[in-house]
Amino acid sequence: xxxxxxxxxxxxxxxxxxxxxxxxxxxxxxxxxxxxxxxxxxxxxxxxxxxxxxxxxxxxxxxxxxxxxxxxxxxxxxxxxxxxxxxxxxxxxxxxxxxxxxxxxxxxxxxxxxxxxxxxxxxxxxxxxxxxxxxxxxxxxxxxxxxxxxxxxxxxxxxxxxxxxxxxxxxxxxxxxxxxxxxxxxxxxxxxxxxxxxxxxxxxxxxxxxxxxxxxxxxxxxxxxxxxxxxxxxxxxxxxxxxxxxxxxxxxxxxxxxxxxxxxxxxxxxxxxxxxxxxxxxxxxxxxxxxxxxxxxxxxxxxxxxxxxxxxxxxxxxxxxxxxxxxxxxxxxxxxxxxxxx
Length: 342
Description:
34% of the residues lie in helices and 21% in strands. By secondary structure, it is an alpha/beta fold. The protein has a six-stranded mixed sheet with strand order 2-12-11-1-10-9. Strand 4 and strand 5 form a beta hairpin. Helix 2 crosses helix 12 and helix 5 packs across helix 7. The two termini are 28 Å apart.
């Protein structure tokens, strides 16, 4: 029996807007999948974990070792970039744009910070000596994704970039014994990049400067995923896409349905959810209805898929819904989107 788990970060609307957004949706297949189920449950989520619900869920689903609700993604992501760390403790590093908003700092969404390989590499090479001087060597993944070895920073409590995006950064900066050292390094790199030719050229083109970096996702080199279904991704941040094999980083339903078991993460809704852009969110939900929900409902009813589990989330909770061919025969359960407010 073929089984598929489909994770949709930010597919749950915020409670205060759920009723209005449900009325605007035209997604009958999704309504059937949420209503005619063989199991369902909701989970509140504590933001003190410094992650988003889908990130903590994914780390557990992939079998990554670490403390509960931690996200030790760095070593696994490095392997996705063809780099296999032999030893040490590694962190993900992302070049970002930080701005002043009244009396606090805000970090912009990386999706809205276009950075090509030439500019990313130039900023990386400029910053690398500062990391090397501290005994924290850098490795390059792509323009938006770097890695830093910091064996003595393994206690650092760091937030994911999506969790911190749009929030008051004072509450989301790294914590722990090494936090002061990380801020000192950030300040030095910020001063370095302030007058860098890459940023001067970006601002001349009307682009936001890359004026800081964000680190998180610390993992020992030996940290690995184990025993999970093949992972497919689409429209996900580069670090997350790197957790899947290259041929599975642009998930297509026909390929997914060839697997006996599969795990799919679709990131189309994340940017709109973080920005509270609900018009864009509605457009993406309608596309997902056509490209995923309706075909998956047909696959369940036709027997091409035995079990479908949906994992939907917003910033403060996630919900799981399981359906099957038999569950879809529960005709007395009228399809409704009310379950989008778990």
